[in-house]
Amino acid sequence: VRRRGGGVLVKSWVHQACGGGGGDGQDHGCAASVDKGCWKCGKKLRCCQLFCPCSVIQPVDNACSYFDIFKLDAAIELNQKDLEAQFKALQRQLHPDLYTRNSEREQEISAQNSALVNRAYQTLRDPLERIKYLLEQQGILTLTEQGGTISDPSLLMEIMEIRQQIDECVSPVVLDELRLSNRTKLSTLLSEIKRHHQDGHREALSQAAIRLQYYAKIEESAEAASERLAEAIKAAEKEAAAAAAAAVVLGEGGGASAVAR
């Protein structure tokens, strides 16, 4: 590192958020491929380039996708370790605390970029949110508020029955079985979505994504039910322990009375 302009310590090498990247200030893989100029020196840069060779932080262009920012291929499945490593590396470069002694413009860009990286990370780390974002990038609005719903009556009935079973479940064992079955369906759907995405089958991809969303909501309901059952069991155990303690006290009291007589 080196100190620039009496301000914060900044990296002397150029960090790039898309492509292979080196110290030459050139982008090597951003899908957007939009040029921009450094706001300070005017040097030509790529859209997802976070630093100019002059070491000044740059705003991320709106054309950059979340995948570009983390230097990852736009895919249904991601390596979570790679994603997390990229996230930590970016935050080490962009955190606003590093720019408190820099210009107001640099502080503003740092705060914006850091917030963007956080938002991108939260989206890509969640499978359903990642698929939703990936589809939106391709103009498929299936999982948005304006998206589609289940049109298959048998599937809709299955979803309703599963949700009812979860709502009425009073056994952790039975609930675990329901969750295992649902997770198997989620895994199958993820594989199906991945295949449709690779093959470019937009309609099949859209329909599979809708089903995935419903089964994902079932998982959320099952998680809530699991927490509810755990609290109920804990409360019952506490009540039983209190009753047992009270019985002991009463028993000791009765024994003492008999001795006194």
UniProtKB/TrEMBL annotation:
Coiled coil: 215-246
Keywords: Chaperone, Coiled coil
GO process annotations (BP): [2Fe-2S] cluster assembly; protein complex oligomerization
Keyword hit for Nucleotidyltransferase: no
Gene Ontology CC: mitochondrion
Gene3D superfamilies, sorted: DnaJ domain (1.10.287.110), HscB, C-terminal domain (1.20.1280.20)
GO molecular function, one term: protein-folding chaperone binding
UniProt cross-references to Pfam families, sorted A to Z: HSCB_C (PF07743)
Database matches in InterPro entries: DnaJ_domain, HscB, HscB_C_sf, HscB_oligo_C, J_dom_sf
NCBIfam families linked to this entry: hscB (TIGR00714)
PANTHER family: IRON-SULFUR CLUSTER CO-CHAPERONE PROTEIN HSCB
Official protein name in the record: J domain-containing protein
